[in-house]
Amino acid sequence: MHSVKIGFSINEILFLISLATGLCWLAWRLKLRSMSEPPARKPVWVTFGSELFVVVALMFTCRIALADWPKVPSGSMEPTLRVGDYLLVNHLAYGPRLPFTNTAIEMGQPKRGDVVVFRYPLDVSQFYVKRLIGLPGDRVRFKDGIVSVNGEPFESQVIGDGEAEEDQGKVLVRETSAGHSRTLKINPMVQGKEPLNTMQAPALAKNCEVERDGLWECRVPQGQYLMLGDNRDNSADSREWGFMPHEEIYGKAVRVLINFSDLKRAWTAL
Question: Is pLDDT at 47 greater than 80 in this prediction?
Answer without folding.
Answer: no
